Amino acid sequence: MSSHHRQRQQQQNLHLLLLQNILAFRGGGAETSSPFTLVLDSVEQGAGGLVREVVRGVKASSRTINIIYISYTFHHPPPGIDTHISARRKTPEAVKAEITSACSSSTKKNLLILSPLTPLLTHPTLHIPTYLLSLLTPRTSLLAIHHIDVPLPLPSPSNPNPYAPPPLTLLHYLATTILTLHSLPQTLARQRASSRSLREPLFGLAEEKDGVIAGMGGNAYKTTGGGGGEGGMVVEMEHRRKSGRSVHETFFFPSPSSSSSGESSAFKGVVLLDQHPLSAASKGGGEKEGGEVQGEDLGGTFNLGLTEKQRRDREGVVLPYFDAQRRGLRGDDEREGEGERRGEGGRILYDMGVEDDFDEEEDEI
Questions:
Q1: How confident is the model at residue 25 (pLDDT cuts 50, 70, 90)?
Q2: Quick one: three-class SS letters along the chain?
């Protein structure tokens, strides 16, 4: 294993541990890795599965965090939460008062799960960054969910200035972690198209077809029956450290099986997307046992791929003009008995081999 590959593997392990710390909100409040986490979901992949994983992870890692779920929809809250606040048809001030009361009534640290952000982003008088930051305290963290498929009015109702940035853009700057959710089958389809230099396929609303809302393979993350194949969810993470440096990584969340409903199964099977076997196959790379090339059949009558041994042999070939390109440097001294010689500035150097057919008349020409 090369040093670069070993360093990359260590970095991937650190990123996986970082994601688990973020979603488990270890420490709580200001001590957690991400006081403000923004989740961006869509019709193609909802955030319900991720929220359930977060609740299980928090309950499994710490019993001293009070989970408060604030909902603007009719959806039932996920199991395991401590307090549910229904925010439908309530003013932001009234919702904030209920949140403050729920936080003060507990001596534990608090995790607020706010879903969705659309009613707050479209409020005519509310400044969304100020409102959300007022909910954060040294003992309180926030996980906010936004549906990117819901259009927002421009300019913002709370700020009619046409030059002001949209509220969602401000949230991107304020959030310490941004998690963007994708469907695994659709991600693999885009990778397959990219590996063949084809146009990436469109899904759902992006297809712009009448009656099409959700595309094929959407919401592949199932709550039960982790049924193999391409079932799962892709989470794209962007985390901002305290130093200002950002960390980018993409992860795969497998669909939980019906038997893994306990708290101990939180984040079980989560790996980097590059380590997923279907992702490696969709990119057309890799090699199976016995030197067989792994990848898709491009529809030709012969195989265009290379095994790992063939790639190493190709990299070890020294071309005749290699020494000419290294003008003034050491020449082709890899062969035994040749020693050192100087490049001759663009002249092609070629050494005859035993298999070459030497023709004196042709050489004189």
A1: confident
A2: CCHHHHHHHHHHHHHHHHHHHHHHCCCCHHHCCCCEEEEEECCCCCCHHHHHHHHHHHHHHCCCEEEEEEECCCCCCCCCCCEEEECCCCCHHHHHHHHHHHHHCCCCEEEEEEECCHHHHCCCCCCHHHHHHHHCECCEEEEEEEECCCCCCCCCCCCCCCCCCCHHHHHHHHCCEEEEEEEHHHHHHHHHHHHCCCCCCCCHHHHCCCCCCCCCCCCCCCCCCCCCCCCEEEEEEEEECCCCCEEEEEEEEECCCCCCCCHHHCCCCCEEHHHCHHHHHHCCCCECHHHCECCCCCCCCCCCCCCHHHHHHHHCCCCCCHHHHCCCCECCCCCCCCCCCECCCCCCCCCCCCCCCCCHHHHHC
